[in-house]
Amino acid sequence: MNIRNSCTTALLTCSVFLAGCSTDKPQTTDFDRGALLTFYADALIVPGYARYAQTCRDLQTAWMTFSSSPDPSSLADLQETMVRAWTAWQEVAPLDFGPALDRGLSGFSNTFPTDTITIALLMNTGSWDLSQADNLDAQGFPALDYLLASGSDGELIAAYDSSPGAAARKAFTEALISRLVQLSESVQADWESQYSQDFAAADGVDIGSSLGKLINAFNRYLERDLRDGKIGIPLGVRTLGIPQPDKVEGLYSGESVALLLSGVNAYRIWLLGTQIGTGEGIGLDDYLDAVDARYGQVKLSSEIRDALADAEAAISGGITVPLDEAVLVQTESV
Fold first, then answer.
1. How many whole angstroms separate alpha carbon 18 and alpha carbon 14?
2. Other CB atoms within 10 Å distance of the CB of residue 19
């Protein structure tokens, strides 16, 4: 099985559910959709947002340390904490519905490639409104990746400590991190209040149901963020085969492959209901089994597991350099 088959299998999974959501008479099953949604909310979604919000607060703490005393040690800690928060973001990235969609969490947190020209303009003017959609690609993790990793340690420390624009750079970076904290905590709070109960209660199979929202969000994530954003666009699938290495996620920190692998793992978490630390719980794969969904002669859930394992192995074993290099020198592997 190759990567194309892996993506096709995952898309087929979503298509099966969407077909079920759109039909007037879905297949009869005793599967407890309410239990599935409750598990997702209580064991996966709320803890996932809590972990993400905590890593954003950790990033803010690391920033405060570096800001007050810029040196190689505090810079390294800040960069590492940024990557941890960015990795935690991958886990909740597929959940672009409900509070996350209402607050524009995905766009404001991880629109890449970042717009370095706009970043420079905002810092030079000393005025910005990060709630404006025009500034989507000048904030979030990609912008921090540029500000905190695009240069040597000495260059970066000087940019925040002794350069003429150090004060503006500090103020803008602090604003970016504060916004990540504010957005992550707001979405977490929304889920921990009424929305979690409403989510579990909407256990129908129509497009407006929680299951329909989940599948639509997962499908968008696969097509737009995981397949196109992380791999296809840098590889050149939308530019007549001409690679676009500057379009990768994690361009400046060199974390593109690790973030890609985290993105595939996030897809596994939500399809299989994987609870961190305790293994699998109730997932969409169980729903597929309940309606006896098949891929040829085998269970579709089994095919999905194999496809995910193949995709992860292809990334881990086939891409040995940062993705911006790999789209040029390891094109077949990518």
1. 6
2. 10
Q: Which helix (H) or strand (E) holds 280?
A: strand 279-280
Contact 21, 212 (CB under 8 A): yes
Query: HSE on the CB side for 115, CA within 13 Å?
Result: 15
What does the pLDDT average to over 256-274? 92
Residue 46 token pair: 């709320």
What is the token pair recorded at 52?
A: 């993400």
| pTM for this model (two decimals) | 0.92
Counting Cα atoms < 13 Å in the Cβ hemisphere of 23 gives 10
Tokens 């505090």 -> residue: 74
CB 51 within 8 A of CB 266: no
C-alpha distance from residue 126 to each of 109, 122, 132, 306, 316 (Å): 21, 6, 16, 51, 42
Dihedral of CA 184/190/195/200: which sign? positive
Tally the residues of the chain. Answer: 334
Confidence of residue 208 (pLDDT cuts 50, 70, 90): confident
Q: Which residue has the tokens 């993105």?
A: 263
CA 172 to each of CA 111, 112, 125, 211, 240: distance values in angstroms, whole numbers, following the listed order: 17, 18, 11, 39, 37
Mean per-residue pLDDT, 56-85 = 98
Model confidence pLDDT, tens digit, residues 221-254: 999 999 999 999 999 999 999 999 999 999 999 9
